């Protein structure tokens, strides 16, 4: 069952904050354990609690130390190959969102041009094709050429399959 969205702010009540921290810490350890097991990767977790003198380490201090030593012994290029800080993450997210925006704009433009083509074919354009701008005419030209190419591709595909269809019908008779 999905939880309701919580606001990310400091919990003012000390006992509630500690209880929430314990629950979240337990869940984080469980998720890290599942990730390490299911993906067959080495993972460790170091959690510093408020007021704790020692951090909690998963799976154990020697295993976490060995894993961190192994990581530090790697060449710098290997260490930083897939490492990402918050700024890089935000930049990557922004670039991904811009890609989605551009894709949506392209699809919207294609749909608008298709509707425009349907209006032109059905004669619903006021003034006909004579009242169109150069941009509108080039969009119409592009979509007509695209659709003709799609029809030609489909015809080639059907013609390539036609001997097989005839052969099947002969064999079935």
UniProtKB/TrEMBL annotation:
Molecular function via GO: cis-regulatory region sequence-specific DNA binding; DNA-binding transcription factor activity, RNA polymerase II-specific; protein dimerization activity
Name this protein carries in UniProt: MADS-box domain-containing protein
UniProt lineage: Eukaryota, Viridiplantae, Streptophyta, Embryophyta, Tracheophyta
Database matches in InterPro entries: MADS-box/MEF2_TF (IPR050142), SRF-like_MADS-box (IPR033897), TF_MADSbox (IPR002100)
Organism: Zizania palustris
GO BP field: positive regulation of transcription by RNA polymerase II
PROSITE patterns: MADS_BOX_2
Domain MADS-box residue range list: 1-50
